[in-house]
Specification:
With 389 residues, the protein is mainly α. The protein has 19 helices and 4 strands.
Length: 389
Amino acid sequence: MDARPGTPEADELDLLATLVEWYEKRHFPIEKPDPVAAVRFRLEQANQTSRDLVPLLGSRAKVSEVMSGKRGLTLQMIRALHRHLGIPAEVLLQETAAASPSTGTAADWTRFPIAAMVKAGWFDASRRTGPGWKAQAEVLMRDLIERAGGLDAVPEALYRKGVTSRQNAKTDRFALKAWCYQVIATAQARSLPAKYRPGVVTEPWARKLAKLSASSAGPQRAKEYLERHGIHLIHTGHLPRTYLDGAAMLLPNGTPVIAVTLRFDRLDNFWFCLFHELAHIALHLRDKNDLFIDDLSLDGSSDGSTNRAEAEADRWAADMLIPPDLWQCSAAAERPTLMNVVSLAQELGIHPAIVAGRVRKERRNFHLLSQMVGNRQVRQHLDSGSSRN
């Protein structure tokens, strides 16, 4: 990477960069932005609001319907937006991902991964009445939406592409929506022993939670700890093409929900993901329309840009699990031997997997300390109370 221009190494680097670019374009193409998301972005760039769309779309009612996904763009609207906002026509001509399921066509309902949802145990397999599940897609999805509390129960951000979160560009939007409905429906069906009090997630509170990791049943104890403070911890397995580790959101009554997929059933991943989502609750969630969807294998947002909220959540999680002053002067940070990792974990009263995970992440070496990250030691503790999501 430090090769000087004109050297054989620089020529080799240029060739490799070209090959990587070609490979990514062919195998991992970046989708065009959703039309509504593109309009919102352009308005923000121009320091305008949705009121400025009235002359282009016809009326305040039409603007509201278009921006909420209840009305599609007409050809006249597309021409006006293209001419006055400079949004490419090919972007505006796409299907709007913001469309509400209740207004979808029969084809839209069948785009939900019903078979995968049945396999995950979200629906009763005995309800199948025909040769396939697609014919029942609308009935099953409407039932799930009703159990979630209706369309108003899910964050508005769910219907927008480019929500403030850490999403993979390859995410299947219908699978993501289905996953969110299941999380909310599961939370709505559970009662908590206490009501959530805003501001409860403080540094001392988080440090106490981190120490629960030292227990052999740490994930289950963490779940109980959160529930005693009015916070749901839901394990809902990921669907194909959702690329999820976790999410944070609020129910309509203001109760926070943390959802984890455990697509990587490891203690280090679980504890960092849990604290990352707690950071969103402590720092970013303000109302039920907020939603944070996280693929923690990504750095920043899905387009590679720096996302302030995600960067803050990463730093908060890292600092609450391992105080920065202790980490910087620790032997584990400088020489991550098994003995040094265990020694720091014992000093902090946390599980060694958390320290090992921090080392691996900072050094970007995920072969290092692989025997210490707690493989297959999370799901067994959360599945017992997770209704096989």
